[in-house]
Design brief:
By secondary structure, the chain is mostly beta strands. It is built from one helix and seven strands, in the order αβββββββ. The strands form three sheets. A three-stranded antiparallel beta sheet has the order 4-5-6, with no helix packed on it. It has a two-stranded antiparallel ribbon with strand order 1-7. Strands 2-3 form a two-stranded antiparallel sheet.
Length: 71
């Protein structure tokens, strides 16, 4: 089987936390990568019109897990 055709993931637009509240839930997704850069780390950010890789402070409250989609 071709793994690319049978395995899917879902990245919810879960927003991010600033420590006291969740922001942009339902419209933005922010996910950490495993690549660190000192006190920063790279993350994937997306909304309905853009997808970007950023380098942000690790104290930002981004999601760390994706959701597996069962066929």
């Amino acid at each position: 089987k071709d793994v690319c055709r049978t395995k899917r993931v879902f990245l919810p637009a879960a927003g991010y936390s600033n420590g006291s509240s969740v922001n942009n839930a339902g419209s933005n997704g922010n996910y950490w990568s495993s690549t660190e850069n000192g006190s920063n780390a790279y993350n994937l950010n997306f909304n309905s019109g853009n997808v970007n890789m950023n380098n942000n402070n690790k104290t930002n409250g981004n999601s760390v897990r994706l959701v597996s989609v069962k066929p």
